[in-house]
Amino acid sequence: MTEMKTSRRALLKTAGGVSFAAALGAPIPFARFLAPGLAPVALAQAVSPAALNKDGLTLLNDRPINMETPPHLLDDAITPATRLFVRNNGLPPAVETVSAENWRLAIDGEVETPLDLTIADLKARFETVTLQLQLECGGNGRKFFKPGASGNQWTFGAVGCPQWTGVRLSDVLDAAGVKPSAIYTAHFGADKHLSGDPERHPLSRGVPITKAMERHNLIAWAINGEAMPALNGHPLRLVIPGWPGSCSQKWLTRINLRDKVHDGAKMSGKSYRMPAYPVAPGTSVPDEDMTIIHSMPVKSLITYPQTGVKKRPSSAFEVRGHAWAGDDDVAAVDVSIDFGATWRSADLDPPDNKFAWQHWRIDVTLPEAGYFEIWARARDSQGRSQPATTPGWNPKGYLNNMQHRIAIFAVL
Ligand SMILES: Nc1nc2c(c(=O)[nH]1)N[C@H]1C(S)=C(S)[C@@H](COP(=O)(O)O)O[C@H]1N2
Ligand SMILES: [Mo]
Prior knowledge:
mainly beta, Sulfite Oxidase, Chain A, domain 2, Immunoglobulin-like, 2 domains, 5-stranded antiparallel β-sheet, 5-stranded mixed β-sheet, binds the ligand Nc1nc2c(c(=O)[nH]1)N[C@H]1C(S)=C(S)[C@@H](COP(=O)(O)O)O[C@H]1N2, binds molybdenum atom
């Protein structure tokens, strides 16, 4: 009976984790009759992106909360926290239960000395670094695969590149003493499984130890110099740039080093895995033929102008955006205004630091009045470039790095 009450109570919460009663500022005498999943109408606005301090994002799902950013709102060189997408697999810890002062991070498993650290310990014992690091969901672009895959129907906006402040994951692992037997990390966070079952994790992924020791991975507590938004992992998260966002555990409480590939939630089956060989769209692929995604592929976004706007023919305007390439660098960005028949290369900046996205710009003139599209195509340092349409179909719709196209009307 008590157990039923607890899980029932867990359901009586906003998607942000606050209890309905607390959010309303009033008890709910008939709470026992409120159907699971039915939010009080007085809170109907509470799940709007603006109410969650997310500026202009598109809400894809509110339990769990998932929001993406329209490309033109990603025009800043450094993504503002208010415009960083949100991808939750479960229910974030209730805001009132999160205290940065009391937060603990455990480092255990295949280490010489297990550590139990507060955020103050992290700041005192390790060098604080600030890096601009890209974060992209492995399912970004899922919407465009045919046949479609279940899951959030991300278009282009499950990506961002803010500045993160924290300590290097490798420094912390070094302090714990990585045993030669450690081959994989396992990450754990304080969010809850949607079922309310405390034994189940919504997400627990990891990376090979060689990737974990890469010097740009951070255990971060700040975005752009400020505390992270609750939905993006406050007070502590991992940032493992270049790999699927799911490797970057939010509300980080524990990193366990393992002597085998981690088998936590969403590590196995079809999750964050690709067929080991190309398959025809719609193929049912046996689990044993699925391999774990490592680096994300090369990709670019046009962040200015906004799709659909009007421009004057025969007068130049700037087109700009960003490009990134997982573990690699971007070597070139080309732009086409004639549906891919001809391409011109854009000016491309080097990254601010390794794993920051790279800005590009080009002046474009539309020759006459009418409908045009602007296409952008990035190429990485290994010569791989973005396909015009969806790349290799896969059961869960990952790694769609097709070119971004925008519509422009040239009007006299
Ligand atoms: N604890 C926890 N960490 C998590 C997730 C989650 O559901 N729970 N989602 C992951 C996924 S799939 C992505 S893409 C990124 C998204 O980070 P963001 O919400 O800050 O944009 O967080 C990752 N870290
Ligand atoms: Mo993700």
